[in-house]
Amino acid sequence: MPRLTSSHRAWIDEAVRRVEADAQRSADTHLHVVPLPGEPGVDLYLKDESVHPTGSLKHRLARSLFLYALCNGWLHAGSTVVEASSGSTAVSEAYFAGLIGLPFVAVVPAGTSPEKIQLIEWYGGRCHLVDSAGEVYETARRLAAELGGHYLDQFTYAERATDWRGNNNIAESIFDQLSREPHPVPSWIVVSAGTGGTSATIGRYLRYRRYPTRLLVADPEGSAFLDGWEQDVSTATASGSRIEGIGRPRVEPSFVGGVVDEMVRVPDAASIATMRWLSGRLGRGVGPSTGTNIWAALGAIERMRAVGETGSVVTLLCDGGERYRSSYYDDAWVAGQGIDLAPYAAVLAEYESTGRLRPPA
Distance of CA 109 to CAs 13, 55, 87, 89, 218, Å? Predict the structure, then answer.
């Protein structure tokens, strides 16, 4: 690690100015009301993170990670920035690396959507492909050492790089935007976990502000987070998620189970069918992790309605569907994964007509 010389300090000052200026040019993301079938009483809101400059929720994380690394003195002029990612974080980090004039290498699984790889490269990054999600960590660490660069390590630093007390984090933004709504303090906030940084930020903020809002984390098939949370261990492992951007083969260091009120397993078929269903209702494509979020949110709403509870539920639109045209929106690709959407598509069609969500037996 280089000593903090006057020239290094000057370079950091300019890099931080560029990152902060970029944030100043960007407006906050929108909070949409999602019209639901059935009896009124519970409002569903969708925080649209796809409108960030790099098109996903990970734009917030990438900005925080770069500021954290810069202010710790870990980056310097000429550093090669390296990250392990399933795609969207690397897209955003390639953008910020270019903003401050540094080369960027993303270590991503070979199954990452071609659209994400193209975006990483479009922003000036280079992709290093590995066979499985479990290989990204050590490969990224090794490449950073070989290149004399810095491994950002989102899976370790996501929960500490964001100021969870406020400073326009996503939780503070949600509550500000809800302040004039019929139910300004939501009953549930529903998110999924990739690094765990977003759930950690929101959960800590809820406790810091003493809100009664409960945090529900939706975990896809093949992810270790739910098992680790239920067993209260950090050593749980799993096969790995097929829903890009969320779920991990291990419990990541940034996942803070103590701030989570409830977790639920979401089948891959439910994530994809709900992604397509929501896209039809919105008139625009959303990504599969948004489908995971919405399926879990609809389940929470169904439980509220069953006991006559009114209120609001908030979840996230993580990224747009244009990144997944050749995968989750392609029927042949989905069938090739052995995923049958028909049972969940039928459930959602019934939900449209009756206003009741009855998952397959």
Answer: 34, 20, 8, 13, 22
φ, ψ (nearest 5 deg) of residue 317: -95, 105
Q: What's the pLDDT tens digit per position in 274-299?
A: 999 999 999 999 999 999 999 999 99
Our CA dihedral for 106, 112, 117, 123, rounded to 10 degrees, sits at -50
Helix H or strand E encompassing 312: strand 311-317
CATH class given for the domain over 58-158: alpha beta
pLDDT at 2: 54
d(CA 81, CA 284): 34
- Three-class SS state of 48: strand
pLDDT in tens, 153-204: 999 999 999 888 877 689 999 999 999 999 999 999 999 999 999 999 999 9
- In the block, which residue shows the tokens 């959960």? 203
Q: Where in the chain is the domain with CATH 3.40.50.1100?
A: 23-56+164-354, 58-158
Residue count (the chain): 361
| DSSP for residue 256 | -
Would you say the pTM of this structure is higher than 0.90? yes
- Mind spelling out the 3-state secondary structure of 10-23? HHHHHHHHHHHHHH
Q: Where are the beta strands (DSSP E) in 30-124?
A: 30-34, 42-48, 81-84, 104-109
- The string of pLDDT tens digits covering residues 156-169 is 999 999 888 877 68
Angle between helical axes of 268-282 and 342-354 (0-180°, round to 10): 40
The 10s digit of each residue's pLDDT in 6-42 is: 999 999 999 999 999 999 988 899 999 999 998 889 9
What is the Cα–Cα distance from 164 to 170, expressed in whole angstroms?
A: 9
Asked if 344 and 360 count as a contact pair (C-beta separation under 8 A), the reply is: yes
- The DSSP letter of residue 128 is E
For residue 165, the model assigns a pLDDT of 87
Report the CATH number of the 23-56+164-354 domain: 3.40.50.1100
Question: Is 103 within 8 Å of 96 (Cβ atoms)?
Answer: no
